[in-house]
Amino acid sequence: MPGFEWFGEEERKEVQDVLNTGVLFRYGFDAARQGHWKARTFEHELARRLGAAHCLLCSSGTAALSIALAACGVGAGDEVIVPPFTFVASFEAVLGAGAVPVFSEIDETLCLDPQAIENRLTPRSKAVMVVHMCGAMARIDEIAALCTRKGLILIEDTCQSVGASFGGKALGTFGQMGCFSFDPVKTITCGEGGAVVTDSAERYKTAHAFADHGHDHTGNDRGAEGHPILGYNYRISELNAAVGVAQLRKLDAILATQRAHKAALKAAMSEFPQVSFRSLPDESGDSATFLSFMLPEEKPARQTARDLNSAGADGCFYYYDNNWHYLRQWHHLKQMRAAARLPVQLSGSCPDYSRAEVPRSDAIIARNISMQIKLAWTPEQLEQRIAIIRKVLGKL
Ligand SMILES: *Cc1c(COP(=O)(O)O)cnc(C)c1O
Question: Is the dihedral of CA 264, 5, 289, 87 positive or negative?
Fold first, then answer.
């Protein structure tokens, strides 16, 4: 998954353009910037790549989620369906908006199960935040149809799956808004950065204002801009955007490399009948940042992840025990340890997350191992990895 593996001359050149002009700000300074608009360039190129009408680059993936919630009108008291297997940013953004995260089961796609969502709906349900985890897709066609049928907003957290698609359509373009992260460990990076994409001119306008103090970005005098709404500062700097411009141009080569590496490893693993794979609704659209597989039971899965890592096949994650990505270890959420009182706590409608139960998700994640796919592997290293996999899985 990491674009940082391929950081080089291209990134340095784009950043140097910005350093040469000294214009680090994404708006204005038209003459001084000598034609360099890095944030704007990235936005146009990402929108075109994904087939979205509008793109706004921002300071992080977490900011992108907050912007999307605001631009979709999700706020105080609204319930948002989220998966228990994601990154902590999902519930942070929902809680930050004053809304209530409602955890719903995942299926063997490792993403939200469309049928399970229906059982979680209440009169206060406003949105579904689907998270395309570990490089690949949820059953996004079914989830999008469900949201349309129920009148729910669909926000796609595509932070881990830039470049992935379903049925030839880019992930991030199925709902009202798609969110992306370009932090240092994502498929492509800005150093820090994120983006939202949408086909709605209205939502784009709200997003654009919200991410810059509510400024309306009209006219040439920033000091005279109006404030149609209240906002925050979620802007990206031109330096970060410049890194992203170079990275985005490498995306197709990154995906091709990941897919080739993953295919070789998956073929080797397929020789073992105890191994089953994450279900992929459209395997050709997988961005292949991870190879996610399941063993029949929790105990051998935990042990096998350990054995693979210690035998030299590093980057094997056992997420069931991980406190970044799975509900089970989110003790700060379960105890609602916030820095200050949150809006949801005022309303008295905050669920007791220490009692949140997702038994079907537990049964899947407890048996899952996700192996990170690296770009830098040489053919010899790939062969070595296959040999380690054969040795470790052969002992099962
Ligand atoms: C990385 C990530 C985020 C947050 O992105 P940042 O840019 O680090 O704020 C959100 N959701 C998921 C699923 C992520 O992996």
Answer: positive
Q: In sequence order, what are the beta bridge partners of 368?
A: 294
Separation between Cα atoms, residue 215 and residue 208, nearest integer Å: 8
pLDDT tens for 363-393 read 999 999 999 999 999 999 999 999 999 999 9
186 is catalytic: yes
Residue among 22, 21, 160 nearest 85 (CA):
160
Q: What distance in angstroms lies between residue 222's CA and the mean position of ligand 1's atoms?
A: 31
Give the mean model confidence (pLDDT) for residues 273-280.
98
Nearest CA to ligand 1 atom 2: 159
Residue 175, ligand 1, Cβ within 6 A: no
Q: Does the beta carbon of 158 lie inside 6 Å of ligand 1?
A: no
Look up residue 6 and give its two tokens: 């391929």
Residue 220 binned pLDDT confidence (cut-offs 50, 70, 90): confident
> Which of the four pLDDT bands, split at 50, 70 and 90, describes residue 396?
confident
Determine the pLDDT at residue 1.
56
Assigned token pair, 292: 């996610």
Structural domains in the chain, CATH included, are 3-251 (3.40.640.10), 252-393 (3.90.1150.10)
Q: What is the pLDDT of residue 26?
A: 96
Total residues found in the chain within this entry: 396
Nearest to residue 315, comparing CAs of 393, 388, 365, 390?
Answer: 388
Cα 283 to averaged position of ligand 1 atoms, centre (Å):
23
Taking the centre of ligand 1 as the mean of its atom positions, its distance from the CA of residue 82, in whole angstroms, is 14
**Which atom, in ligand 1's list, is nearest to the CA of 60?**
7
The number of the ligand 1 atom at minimal distance from the alpha carbon of 181 is 7
Residue 266: closest CA among 132, 395, 110, 389: 389
Q: Which of 126, 150, 169, 186 is catalytic?
A: 186
pLDDT for residue 323 is more than 70:
yes
Q: Which two tokens stand for residue 241?
A: 């955007």
For residue 347, is pLDDT > 90? no
> Which atom of ligand 1 is found nearest the CA of 86?
13
Ligand 1 site, residue 59, Cβ cutoff 6 A = no
**pLDDT at residue 341, rounded to an integer:** 92
